[in-house]
Amino acid sequence: MYLTEKQKRVYEFIKEYIAARGIAPTYEEIKEKFGLRSISTVFDHIRTLEQKGFIAKGGQNRKRALQVVTFGKRSVTIPLVGTVAAGRPLEVYEIQEHIDVPEEMLGSGENVALKIRGDSMVDSGIHDGDIVVVKRQSTAENGRIVVALVDGEATIKRIYLHDDMTVELRASNPDVPPLFVTEKQNLRIFGVLVGLYRTYNL
Prior knowledge:
Helix content is 19%, strand content 34%. It has 3 helices and 11 strands, in the order αααβββββββββββ. By secondary structure, it is α+β, with helices and mostly antiparallel strands. It has helices at 5-21, 27-34, 39-51, and strands at 55-57, 66-68, 75-85, 98-102, 111-117, 131-136, 145-150, 153-161, 167-170, 179-181, 187-197. The strands form 2 sheets. The protein has a 9-stranded mixed beta sheet, with no helix packed on it. Strands 1-2 form a two-stranded antiparallel sheet. β9 (167-170) and β10 (179-181) form a beta hairpin. The chain folds into 2 domains: 5-68, Winged helix-like DNA-binding domain superfamily/Winged helix DNA-binding domain (Arc Repressor Mutant, subunit A), CATH 1.10.10.10; 75-197, Umud Fragment, subunit A (Ribbon), CATH 2.10.109.10. α2 (27-34) packs across α3 (39-51). It starts with a helix and ends in a 5-residue tail after the last strand.
């Protein structure tokens, strides 16, 4: 799962502390290490790391009950290349940033990450601020979630090709009407969805 820079620093401190001492740091030690204003902020960080699967709570000593989760497979770094609208088309732009994702999440070939803006795909579990992993390809089966470029602008929708050759880009939100691509418009599939991150702001 994707970690913010703050979350990475807290996670690395916990991991290195356990490796050096055989026990986890206390919440007070984490607070002092990062100059946090309150223990509640530490709780927020720990809860997020637990939700994302990086640490677990266990052991008899509740003050030092944190355990680092060992991942069985390696991660791969992929580029975060832009923002895509889940409500209306938005141009994809280059971002000089990379994220680590589990290797098993990726499709074969080229994979990139995009940040979601909007709420038209909420019924498919894709929310504003999420990061999606997209396998680059120019074709997709009916019903697949795709990032499509319509006249050069990107949107994320489910794609359907109808018998009359009409292409429908359908939202997963009953309040958002489908987008029907006309013959006069230029449609290109950017890629298909293969993974999803849920991020938490601290």
